[in-house]
Design goal:
The longest helix is centred in the middle third of the chain and has 24 residues, at about 50-75. The protein is α+β, with helices and mostly antiparallel strands. The chain contains four helices and seven strands.
Amino acid sequence: MYRSLIQVTKKFFGTKRSPVQTYGLKGTYNNGRFIWTSNKTEEKFEVDEPLEGIVACMCTCEIHTAEFFAKKLGINLKGFEIKNVEADYDIRNFSDSPNSPNRFTQIRMEVLLDTDASDEQINELKEKVHGHCPIYRMIAGSGVEIKDTWTRK
């Protein structure tokens, strides 16, 4: 079983965004590390395995989705941190068993919010993120069990 450990953090600040955005990544491989650079922001993240990049993208997408819906719901969200991310991947399909599931089997994470929102508002935000985050929905829709706990910092 392959296990990935990733930590993603973002502090929020006011931005104006257009309704349509085009994203691009440039990937390089150097000394056993995959380095991804955003064409839009020049931000970089490094991973040991490409599968880690998928999970990192999901976490980043959740952060952006949470930021968007927090504003719509009137939630004062000062920070959103995803940590202790673990993703299990069944590597049998890659190596010797083409009939095994070719996906993560489970992803676990802790979500910490820097907010004064009520528990009810946090649950509503969590439902919005789960229902609208495109990468979360793609991964969950493929049969991956995603276990996440959302708590206030």
